[in-house]
Amino acid sequence: MKHVQLFTRRANLAMAAAASIVTACAVWGPRAERWRAPTAGASWEVAQRNTGSYGKDMVLRITRGDGIWQGQPVMTLTNSQGMNTVITPTGHWIAIVGRDGRTLTRWDPPLGFEYPITVGKSWVKAYRMTFGAQGETLPYDLNCTVQSHEKVTVRAGTFDAFKIVCSTNIGNEETYWINFDQGVFIKTDLRRTTKSPFGAGTQQSELVSAPSLKP
Asked: Is 16 left (phi over 0), alpha (psi -120 to 50) or beta?
């Protein structure tokens, strides 16, 4: 009987130890508490392979700046074609503004990831998206899962990145590889289906050069 009790006690201790290891892995796994913005003036290049509604292939230089949006300080990402993405200090997208100063798309509330970011985390969030010259507004529901944390090799080098897969109610399927410490997308794979108000199309992009960033 004593041998049975001793065996049982040891088995329980072993299971408790195993549970502690699993818990520790979950607690101490890769984690991004927030988005860290590139420094003002930092720039990088992104190559896009586009089809359909995304237009033609291009290489864009993106520069991080600062600005004011509706009386509030914001950050801007300006590409070499004069388009501006207006973002909050936490990295959430407020709007995309054309080179003529007109707002092309905006989101309410600002669009973005839910922090902290950990592998296995999922979330669903509802937005309102307004776009086009007519100011048409649509519900925009974003459903995302953090699939993994992995090394990604692109032309700019090899980076650690979270892989986040998202889908929307308007026919978007989106995969992002992002390094939150660098504050940039390392790679993306975006697909619009025929449900999208913009029309069907695909866009694959990768970081080409990043003189202001370090792998």
From this structure: alpha
Contact at 8 Å (CB) between 165 and 119? no
Whether omega for the bond prior to residue 73 falls within 30 degrees of 0, making it cis, is: no
Phi and psi at residue 30, in whole multiples of 5°? -55, 140
- Mapping DSSP onto H, E and C, the string for the chain reads CHHHHHHHHHHHHHHHHHHHHHHHHHHHCCEECCCCCCCCCCEEEEEEEEEECCCCCEEEEEEEEEEEECCEEEEEEEECCCCEEEECCCCCEEEEECCCCCEEEEEEEEECCCCCEECCCEEEEEEEEEECCCCEEEEEEEEEEEEEEEEEEECCEEEEEEEEEEEECCCEEEEEEEECCCCEEEEEEEEECCCCCCCCEEEEEEEEECCCCCC
- pLDDT by position in tens, the chain (length 215): 444 344 344 444 444 444 333 333 445 789 999 999 999 999 999 999 999 999 999 999 999 999 999 999 999 999 999 999 999 999 999 999 999 999 999 999 999 999 999 999 999 999 999 987 778 999 999 999 999 999 999 999 999 999 999 999 999 999 999 999 999 999 999 999 999 988 999 999 999 998 766 55
- pTM of the entire structure? 0.84
